[in-house]
Amino acid sequence: MDLSVFVQLLLPGLTTGCVYALVALGFVLCANVSGVVNFAQGEYVMLGGVIGASLLAHTGSLALAVLGATLAGALLGAAQERLTLAPVRAAPDFIQITITLGVAVVLRGIALIAFGKDPLSMPGFSGDGVFEVAGAVVPLQSLWVWGASAAMLAAMFVFLMHSDAGRAVRACAINLQAARLMGVDAERLTLFVFSIAGATAALAGVVVTPIVLANWDAGIAYGLKGFVGAILGNFRSPVVALAGGLGIGVLESFAAGYVSSGYKDAIVYGVLLAYLLVRGGVFVFGRAALLSR
Amino acid sequence: MKKLVCAAALVVWAGVAAAQQEFKIGIVASLSGGFAAAAKDTIDGWRAWEKAHGLPGKKITVETLDDETNPVSASNAFRRIASDQSVQLVYLFIPSNSVMAVKSLASEFKVPIVAGGAADAIGIPADPWVFKVAPAVRDFMTVLAQYAQQKGYKRIASLNSADAFGQAEITNLKALAPKMGLQVAAAETFNVEDTNFNAQLTRIRAAKPDLIYNGASGRAAILTWRAFQQMGFKQPLVVTQAAVSKAFFDAIGSTEAADGLLTPMQTGVFGGSAAADAKLYGEMEKALGRTPVYFNTFGFDVGLITEYAVKNSDGSRQGLREALDKIKDLPAVNGPVTYTKDDHTGQNYRSIRMGRLKSGKPVPAD
Amino acid sequence: MKRRAALAAFVLLVLAYPLMVRGSYPLSVGIITGALAAGTVGFVLLLGYAHQLALGQAGFCMVGGYASAILCVQHKWDPLAALIAGAAAAMALAWMIAAPILKLRGFVLAMASLALHLILVVVAFETAFTGGALGTYGVPKFALFGLPLASDLAYYYVVWAIVLAFVLIGLAIDGSRIGRALKAIAASETAALSAGIDIRRYKLLMFVLSAGMASVCGSLAVHYLRAMDPNVFGFAFSLNFITAVIVGGLETVWGGVVGAVLVTGVREMLRGLSLPLWEGVIMGALTVVVLIAFRRGFAGFLGALYERWTSRDAPPRVSIAEPDNAALASHGKPAALELAGVSRSFGNLRAVNNASFHVAAGSITALIGPNGAGKTTLFNLICGYQPLDSGSVSYENRRIDTLLPDDIAELGIGRTFQNLQLFDNMSVLENVMCGRHRFVEREAASRSRARAALAFVGLRDAERLPPSALAFGHQRLVEMARALALEPRLLLLDEPASGLNDAETERLAELVLRIAALGVTVLLVEHDMRLVMGLADHVIVMHHGEKLADGAPDDVRREQAVIDAYLGIEEHAAA
Asked: Range with the lowest mean pLDDT among B162-166, B302-306, C272-276?
């Protein structure tokens, strides 16, 4: 097997995988604390990209663009939680989830109207050059993507393990009812977590834009692939979700490279479907599934 | 005396009325969606024809509906326009998929249709009411293959979009290749919304081609061009005509950055003496007021065809259809137009030349 | 009455529409709306009744569309036959995907359905037999039993006739045992299981049925478009379904019809105003706003208006009637229950530790103990809501500890819940009728047996009311009636006196005795010592998950260990 081909497929796969991993993480955090799968998660990546590219074009300052995009993600995430989920906290889960779907559609629609249908671009943060690894050519911007993702994950790790709010989040993941009984203010925590999820997704979106451009309809694919990552971890374990997201990025790249570029989506979604079917088939005793968290 | 004045007035009025005989054209165009830029250019080109030639003795009125670049809306818009009995002729300035959706309905509404779109299936098999203008994918691939053969290249790699257009490209290329001593070393596809072409380019590189054809347009054109640069491809690169646009030059930095790119283009785009009909080209450029791009030339040619049909018929739907069917070697900006009973493609490879980009403009490549 | 009014309005509007508009374009819009409605009616069954947010419903539309296109164009099939074949294929596909996946918790089916859809899109693009990216063209007009429908008007009527048929199917489901089961599942899955309702089966049924209807939607659309390609039924189309059903109304199949009309209307209006880009924002915003502010949707709103117009006075307050002891006849031998070495831990906490006891047939046995003793856990273990770590539970000498709660209910074990689990979305009578679920019988029989159970507990007059209109004590009786309607041989009561005053507790004791007299073994968990000592033949005391004592009431309460652990202070009061 040709090593350069392998590396040429692996590294870019890891780059997109970083974005999927962050989306997956956002899914897991929000779901654990609020019980809701936030279908708008992928849209925050898209928004980070289009807002960042726009800000750069208007102000010429990269720092402003990145900070602005991240802040926008945080604010929109908080707004989504406050305006559309807080009022219906008592409603059945499927209603809340459908609301997040509605929000996703609105965000897409607004992006189309505000930023147009053409893709927006940004120059690489340190230029548009490339570097070589084992005969494979990789854009320099990939280093920024990896770096930013690693930084965000490290921050997330510190937060979850060593801060009060982070411990509260982990408690909710293990048993929401017990956590509430222990005095965890799930409502405030939900606002915080949605904000964080929005911010990290937006930052990922702006950092990856120089490589893939930013377009109004990119959110769904990010959301769906991030979701695959989250579900491999059964929506409980952030670590598995991360690994899952990275894995899906790499799988997508390998599927396109080694099997067929036309069928790559079918392979990625086929993996999701196969995984679910197998888990359902082997899942003999449905009892544990019947009790609510 | 009074009677004479009245009679004179009546005659003048009748003359004016006759001179202002209305000719209504229904246009289904992509006013929104992915094809909007191309549709707008086409309409501009058609307006240039209207200004330069128009229909003598007739007042042209136009009703335009949006297909939103999707076949379902195209189908609906067509139904709406074709049901209006005052519409004599329909233009379709929409992509191939949408044209095919309308083609299924053409015989039901019985109104002559002049359509764009590059798909071969639009013109062959011929529908009595649907007349394609502009060469088909088959013809672009013919020019590509001829160029490769002429240059002595043996291995071609092709990157095509996973849609009707792309599929037609690769099907035609694969059919032509053996006849011209060429080999399709790699045939890769991509989805129009894809942003990552790493896998496809990796496989193309591994296939060691002499010449590479890239059928991407829009965002994909920008990203693939960048990827080709970054991965250090040295082979000559042929892109599709539709890829070369202002947005493309903006995104890659400058028009000079694209110097050396090859692209098979309608002769009308080369302008001047390279155009199939230099005189018509000059008229178009003058009426447009700027350098025409491809879709402008197409719009102008649609006007020329209309002109012929109206001149050679009674202006009714059936009459126009019959006149269109008789067109043989009609001069047009891009190349002569011919319709036969079995082939309503209109223009063919004679309307195309391989060009090379230089400072954003094509010059004949040889 | 409301149903008849709705049907009449529907038929009238469908007939009148072609007469009110001119030109072929509005008629085309009417046809497309009808095709969409055929799909959305099915989607109400899935999202509104079974609460499954399927994101890939358009995938089933594709199956129908391609089936019709390929079979009619390439194989010259009759369009009606192709439509049916497509629906069958879609339903088979839906069954294969959902049967395993519905065993999983959470919104996996939503994403699985989207994944399936996207896979189908890729397959449609890439394979030759679907025509690839260009698709299949020249689809003939629809024909009914061999007679081609030449005019658009004829097709319009055929499409809406199909919609009417689907609506009637939906309404039939609504008023049937299946409809009650779905409503029960929506209100309380725990209680639904206790009535013997197999949750997965009904969700699966709705998923398969809605897939078939989506397929018909696809076929009907394709015969109108006369062409089919992979772009026709994309993700945006699935979103249309969701928006239509939310805005139209989730609670009734009419919501699907109303929603289809509204969504199409909005789109046409936007097109007229040349604002097509706003469609996404407006649809998404409508979805969010309706779900937050008026969840019943537009159809629900119309229904509420109708109710306001035709309402009678407020229902009278219900007082408890004299219970009719003759209402229920004895239904067989009471059953015995045997627990041997049952243990269950949660992490480090041993909730139940090696519990063994025998509940004699026909006895009234009480399970008592301080809070945290493991009583409710034991109930959950017996009824199948929790798996055992070790040990066995036998019912009439048959091991039941590996069964699921609905299977256990089917065997004739009924239960009530400490924190009342009634179905608020149904009337009292319908709640009790849910208890009849394990019997396959005609509606009339189900209704009369449920009435008998209600009469037995003295609530005959309350049958039309929603449970929330009753006093708490009466609500407890409704739950008892529901459990009795199951004709149990073993009845588990979880703290039945909790929240009752003295008089109500007295009546409860009488009721329990009467139930035992019917031939039912009763096992109850209780805190109220007076009730227990007066009622029970046999008392089991639990403490820290272990059995502390087991015997006749008088013997147990004299045991030192019991006094120390539990009765301590009471001993003085009771003596």
From this structure: C272-276
Q: Is C137 on the interface with B (CB under 8 A)?
A: yes
| pLDDT for res B251 | 78
pLDDT at A19: 95
C278 touches chain B (CB under 8 A): no
Q: Please tell me whether residue C275 adopts helix, strand or coil conformation.
A: coil
Q: Does B190 touch chain A (CB under 8 A)?
A: yes
- Kindly state whether C347 is in contact with chain A, defined as any CB-CB distance less than 8 angstroms: no
Does A121 sit within 8 Å of B195, measured CB to CB? no
- Is C510's Cβ below 8 Å from some Cβ in B? no
* pLDDT of B13 strictly over 80: no
Query: Of A137, A213, A265, which is closest to B223 when you measure between CB atoms?
Result: A213
Nearest by CB: C227 against B66, B83, B104:
B104
Interface check B226 vs A, CB under 8 A: yes
Separation of alpha carbons B340 and C275, rounded Å: 41
In DSSP notation, B226-278 reads HHHHHTT--S-EEE-GGG-SHHHHHHHS-SGGGTT-EEEEEHHHH-GGGSSSH
Q: Give the SS3 label for residue A181.
A: helix
Query: What is the rounded average pLDDT of the residues B168-189?
Result: 93
What's the DSSP call for residue C462? G
Instruction: Considering only the beta carbons, identify the residue of B96, B101, B162 that sits closest to C227.
Output: B101
Give per-residue pLDDT as tens, B80-95. 899 889 999 999 999 8
Shortest alpha-carbon distance between residue A257 and chain B (Å): 4
Spatial distance between the Cα atoms of A108 and A87, rounded to a whole number of angstroms: 23
Query: What's the sign of the alpha-carbon dihedral C141, C142, C145, C149?
Result: negative
The dihedrals phi and psi of C88, each to the nearest 5 degrees, come to: -65, -45
What's chain A's Rg over C-alpha atoms? 19
Give CA–CA dist C298/C179, Å, rounded: 21
Say how many domains are in chain A: 1
Average pLDDT, chain B: 87
pLDDT at C88 over 90: yes
Residue C270 forms contact with A (CB below 8 Å):
no
Residue C573 CB burial class (10 angstroms; 0-12, 13-18, ≥19): exposed
Q: Which residues pair with B161 in a beta bridge?
A: B190
Which domain CATH number covers A119?
1.10.3470
Which of the residues B80, B124, B169 would you substitute to probe the C interface, choosing the one with the greatest number of C C-beta atoms within 10 Å? B80
Instruction: Map out the domains of chain B with their CATH numbers.
Output: 2-137+276-352 (3.40.50.2300), 139-266+354-364 (3.40.50.2300)
B199 — contact with chain A (CB < 8 Å)?
yes
Test A121 with B251 for CB contact under 8 angstroms. Answer: yes
* Predicted confidence (pLDDT) at residue B227 exceeds the cutoff of 70: yes
Structural domains in chain C?
Answer: 2-310 (1.10.3470), 337-574 (3.40.50.300)
Cβ separation of A253 and B189 shorter than 8 Å? Answer: no
| pLDDT band at residue B152 under the 50/70/90 scheme | very high
Within 244-263 of B, beta carbons closer than 8 Å to A belong to 247, 251
Note the pLDDT tens digit of each residue in B132-144. 988 888 999 999 9
Residue of B nearest to C132 (CA): B164
Cross-chain CB nearest to C119 (options A99, A266, A276): A266
DSSP string, C55-79: S-HHHHHHHHHHHHHHHHHHS---H
Q: What is the pLDDT of residues B156-172, one digit of tens each?
A: 999 998 877 888 899 99
pLDDT tens digit sequence for B52-91: 998 988 899 999 998 888 788 898 899 889 988 999 999 9
Q: Is C384 on the interface with A (CB under 8 A)?
A: yes
pLDDT of residue C101: 86
Mean pLDDT over each residue of chain C, to the nearest integer: 88
